[in-house]
Amino acid sequence: SYYNGLQTTLQKHFSGGLDFLTTYTYSRCRSDAGDLLNGTAIGSYRAVDIPGVGIQADYGDCDFDIRHVFHFSGGYQLPFGKGKHFLSKASGPVNLLAGGWSTQWIATIEGGQPITLGCSSTGDSPAGGVGCYDYVIPGVNRHGSGAPDHFLNPAAFTQPCPPAGYAQPSTCISGLSGLALLGGSASQVSGPGIGRLDFSLFKDIPISERFRMQFRSEFFNILNHPTFNAPGFGGNGVRALPGSTDFLDANFGRIGSTRFPFNDPRQIQFALKLYF
Fold first, then answer.
1. For residue range 174-205, what is the model confidence (pLDDT) as tens digits?
2. What residues pair up with 114 in beta bridges, in sequence order?
3. Which of 58, 57, 59, 61 shows the shortest CA–CA distance to 27?
4. Confidence (pTM)
5. From its phi and psi, is residue 83 left (phi > 0), alpha (psi between -120 and 50) or beta?
6. Which alpha helices (DSSP H) does 82-204 contain, by range?
7. Residue 242 and residue 7: Cα distance in Å, rounded?
8. Is 184 within 8 Å of 114 (Cβ atoms)?
């Protein structure tokens, strides 16, 4: 296994009550080791018991390989109320209403984890029971429109033809023999990414020198943006969509479930907090 990455961080505190933290990582991880605890759509070993093949034939992107990871968080004390830029001399009810507001946010944008696409189930397995992975056609976009019903492009994939005497798919590479019938490498394409924005709005209410109250409104996934599973990967007890990883099937590339079904929908909560 190996991992190479560029990791960057930018942090800034402004005098006007604004601060932010930005991190970006560009990386690549390659391995022939499967991560059984990660629960991804990377696939399993094809020919681990065949001499001369072993796990080396399944060398590809790591289960947890995410090429781009971007996080942007920060906070801003709104410039209203006593001592602030606007309404700096406010007092009484005006300051109580206008002052003490602040916002916080966390934005997350990440690429998808890799998907391994097995050969079409049309006919029999070209590799006679040891598994087979699709080949990638050079120069063709592997992703479809990006919509949940067309996430992958079937025109970007092909496979070895089965041996003579078996049903032949309409799209395959003929004349292959031996280990070439195992198909291409694992992790041919990346799955759906993550895009999420959490936002909070706070209000500090002074009571005395020792006590203050804080009203908190917190919006998790405020844009209500779903995070999808990879095609053919159910997870969390959800049944995978049949044929969604078979490039000869009408359902190829269709996504059948969300990745975080209980945490995906927008959630809003309000709270009062007493500081002393």
1. 887 777 878 888 889 999 999 999 999 999 99
2. 190
3. 61
4. 0.81
5. left
6. 92-98
7. 39
8. no
